[in-house]
Amino acid sequence: MPAFRYEAIDQSGKTARGVLEADSVRAGRAMLRAQGLAPLVVELAAAKLNGERNQRLALGRKLSQREQAILTRQLASLLIAGLPLNEALSVLSEQAERDYVRELMASIRGEVVGGHTFANALAQHPRDFPDIYRALVAAGEHTGKLGLVLSRLADYIEQSNALRQKIVLAFTYPAVVTVIALGIVTFLLSYVVPQVANVFMSTKQQLPLLTVAMLALSDYVRHWWWATLVAWAMAIWLVRQVLARPLPRLAFDRWLLTAPLAGRLVRGYNTVRFASTLGILTAAGVPILRALQAAGETLSNRAMLANVDDAIVRVREGLSLSRALGNTKTFPPVLVHLIRSGEATGDVTTMLDRASEGEASELERRTMLLTSLLEPLLILAMGGVVLVIVLAVMMPIIELNNMVQ
Predict the structure, then answer these.
(1) Which of 275, 309, 326, 384 is the most buried (most CB within 10 A)?
(2) What whole-number distance in Å separates Cα of residue 332 and Cα of residue 326?
(3) Rounded distance between C-alpha atoms, residue 146 and residue 353, angstroms
């Protein structure tokens, strides 16, 4: 039975909104009238809205990472408890706090009741459920372990969100210091330096080379700042256009893996995603080739993805997973060694989980170390720039005092 979104007015004149299930729009209006409501709008929960009303309701029409994790955890708990999928989705729809989440769950339930698989129902909402999410759900449905897959998927989403939040918070302070430093330098060059320069110009004094250079830079900042913004915008656009092509993007990702500081962070972040996803799929009993393909889709680095594709070919030819990944020379040796131990003991899933946890801790440690080094370096750089500006201003004053004496 499809789900319909409705707006109606009760007997007191108040507007009521919600979701109901009916055979048709006409049946939905009849149900509302039976409840003493005057229906204004009754439409499919998945229907696209138009005009001003679409713009008003479209705000916030996307699941947040937190809501996605909570819904996945709740659905996993209900399925493991033995509740049928359509009833579990109905429970989630009824207890949802936000209107959009309520409508989303009702729409998905309508698709499931209509005969679609859960993964196909999620595919109708790609903004809320990305490809890898739907791939894991499809694997769980195929193996009959949907509850287990959703439970591990909820763990993965929560851990991924926590790791991403720690990385963002770690780089927030250096970013704030950089913005403040640029603001101070821009103020000095555009306001303070010109004011002092006017005094020097009236004395007809020959200015030091540093002061002349600083005055030229100040003049550029005051009159050509817009050219700098345009140049940066064009450079960013050009880089994005180039990286949108497969070969330049592959070459850039290969270089990124070898970069002095960013290389280890990129490698570690992608390794965590790869090992976590592969662990979820192997726990659900997904064949190793299909699991490798789905886990590879989580990688944001094209060079690592190409290496995973090579590993898939080697595994298909009969090579073990550990040797196939080890031959790529891309993933950390710890991951390869743990997979080899799991193959020897027959418990690859546990070793993948350990590798993911260990690499996540190492990634967090490296991020904290990098930011702890960036903070004093930024402060020193800011102090150095301000010192140069002060010297450029003070040197003519000192020379003028010497001439007066």
Answers:
(1) 275
(2) 9
(3) 19
Cα separation, 27 vs 25, in Å, equals 5
Which of the two residues, 306 and 21, has the higher pLDDT score?
A: 306
Q: Give the DSSP letter string of 135-201.
A: HHHHHHHHHT-HHHHHHHHHHHHHHHHHHHHHHHHHHHHHHHHHHHHHHHHHHIIIIIHHHHHHHHH
pLDDT > 70 fraction of the chain, expressed in percent and rounded = 90
The string of pLDDT tens digits covering residues 45-62 is 654 433 433 443 444 467
Whether the pLDDT of residue 156 is over 50: the answer is yes
User: Residues, the chain, total?
Assistant: 405
Q: How many angstroms separate the CA atoms of 371 and 377, rounded? A: 10
On the CB side of 284, CA atoms within 13 Å amount to: 29
Rounded Cα–Cα distance for residues 183 and 203 (Å):
31
pLDDT tens figures, 257-296: 888 888 888 998 899 989 988 888 888 777 888 888 888 8
Average the pLDDT over 335-349 and give the result: 89
* Cβ-based neighbours of 213, under 8 Å, separated by 6 or more: 392
Q: Enter the DSSP assignment of 267.
A: H
Structure tokens at 114: 């209509």
What are the backbone dihedrals phi and psi of residue 104, each rounded to the nearest 5 degrees, phi first? Answer: -65, -45
- Which residues does 129 contact at the CB level (< 8 Å), separation at least 6? 63, 68, 122, 123, 137
Q: Which of 86, 65, 6 is nearest to 38 (CA)?
A: 6
Running DSSP on this structure, what letter comes out for residue 61? -
Q: Are 175 and 353 in contact (CB under 8 A)?
A: no
DSSP string, 82-105: T--HHHHHHHHHHH-SSHHHHHHH
pLDDT in the model for residue 405:
55
